[in-house]
Specification:
Elements lengths: L1 E5 L3 H12 L3 E6 L14 E5 H7 L2 E4 L6 H8 L6 E4 L14 H9 L2 E5 L5 H5 L2 E2 L2 E2 L2 E4 L3 H13 L5 E3 L6 H17 L14
Parallel strand pairs: 1-2, 1-4, 2-3, 4-5, 5-6, 9-10
Antiparallel strand pairs: 6-9, 7-8
Helix pairs in contact: 3-4
Bound molecules: NADP nicotinamide-adenine-dinucleotide phosphate.
The site of NADP nicotinamide-adenine-dinucleotide phosphate has 20 residues, from helix 1 and helix 3.
Length: about 200
């Protein structure tokens, strides 16, 4: 896939490198491409302006801090027919006047949306194995094409299953699930090397 990564920090940068290793073509979309040239040294990754990233990509991962969400959404413009994965978390602040990133992208970009890669710390995106077994990813959204892409990219990032929380009405729940991880890891002091996995019998 041709994937634009908007916000190549801890979350976006980690996933960009993993997907590039799996053969996906990654466009790191930034305002000033001259400032991020180091990414061009990695196979399958190139840095481009936001406009070029929009022209050359069919899938978008947005992983920027909440205060940047509306600005980024407006810069990306109309993404009709393209898939946007929202990895942001509006659990402590909202991208006013929107409730969360998902509703901002829905209103501004008109993309095929899925919420995912937000429910765990970036360390677990980098290393998805605990005791030799891959952990799971979780998602929500009403667009089935976007969820198919999310399933594939979760596998390509090393997750075992990508569990579906449901439609757009479950996006808030997936953000609260992220807050459950943050609460255990940070506020309750369990540390960032903890992860959720669904067990069945
Ligand atoms: N950290 C985690 O463990 C984690 C886990 C799950 C979800 N999340 C969510 O993922 C999102 C990103 O978190 P992160 O930890 O990856 O953040 P981060 O490491 O600070 O990276 C943020 C990225 O966004 C870019 N950015 C910031 N402001 C921007 C703007 N106005 N326009 C364009 N790009 C901008 C930054 O570019 P520069 O480097 O040029 O500033 C950087 O590449 C947040 O919404 C967070 O809640 C984080």
């Amino acid at each position: 896939m041709n994937i634009a990564v908007i916000g190549a920090g801890k979350v976006g940068g980690t996933l960009a490198e993993k997907w590039a290793k799996k053969g996906h073509k990654i466009n790191i979309g930034v305002k000033d491409p001259s400032s991020k040239q180091h990414w061009n040294e990695i196979d399958n990754i190139s840095v481009s302006s936001l406009n070029d990233a929009v022209d050359n990509s069919e899938v978008f991962l947005v992983a920027v801090p909440v205060p940047a969400i509306v600005e980024i959404a407006e810069s990306l413009g109309d993404l009709s027919g393209k898939i946007l994965i929202d990895a942001t978390n509006s659990v402590f602040a909202k991208p006013q006047p929107y409730e969360n990133g998902f509703s901002a992208f829905q209103s501004i970009n008109n993309a095929k949306l899925v919420k995912g890669f937000n429910t765990t710390g970036f360390e677990n995106l980098y290393d998805t194995e605990y005791e030799g077994k891959p952990i799971d990813m979780f998602m929500a959204g009403s667009d089935e094409d976007a969820k198919d892409v999310m399933r594939q990219l979760s596998k390509d990032a090393g997750f075992e299953n990508c569990y579906d929380f449901g439609g757009d009405d479950k996006v808030g729940l997936v953000e609260q699930f992220a807050l459950a991880w943050i609460n255990l890891a940070i506020m309750q002091g369990e540390g960032r090397n903890i992860a959720f996995k669904v067990l069945k019998r």
